[in-house]
Amino acid sequence: MQQITLAEASQHLPELIEAAINGEEIVITKDEQPVVKLTPVSPVKRRPAKAGSAKGLVTISDDFDEPLEDFKDYM
């Protein structure tokens, strides 16, 4: 585990990020107290959308396109 001060971290941020991505644990300290740990974010794996995959999940009522009762005065 590598500990580095906030001032040093701001000067070497790209190198610290690369080290964290490569598995090194980086702890940034302020006033000699640990305040931040750099850890890589795992990429989100998404499956491509498949046509018809939501079939049966969405329904539209029979009167969907009928005028609303509240707006009859305006028609």
From TrEMBL:
<comment type="function">
    <text>Antitoxin component of a type II toxin-antitoxin (TA) system.</text>
</comment>
<dbReference type="InterPro" id="IPR051416">
    <property type="entry name" value="phD-YefM_TA_antitoxins"/>
</dbReference>
<comment type="similarity">
    <text>Belongs to the phD/YefM antitoxin family.</text>
</comment>
<dbReference type="InterPro" id="IPR036165">
    <property type="entry name" value="YefM-like_sf"/>
</dbReference>
<dbReference type="InterPro" id="IPR018739">
    <property type="entry name" value="DUF2281"/>
</dbReference>
<feature type="domain" description="DUF2281">
    <location>
        <begin position="47"/>
        <end position="74"/>
    </location>
</feature>
<protein>
    <recommendedName>
        <fullName>Antitoxin</fullName>
    </recommendedName>
</protein>
<dbReference type="Pfam" id="PF10047">
    <property type="entry name" value="DUF2281"/>
</dbReference>
<dbReference type="InterPro" id="IPR006442">
    <property type="entry name" value="Antitoxin_Phd/YefM"/>
</dbReference>
<dbReference type="Pfam" id="PF02604">
    <property type="entry name" value="PhdYeFM_antitox"/>
</dbReference>
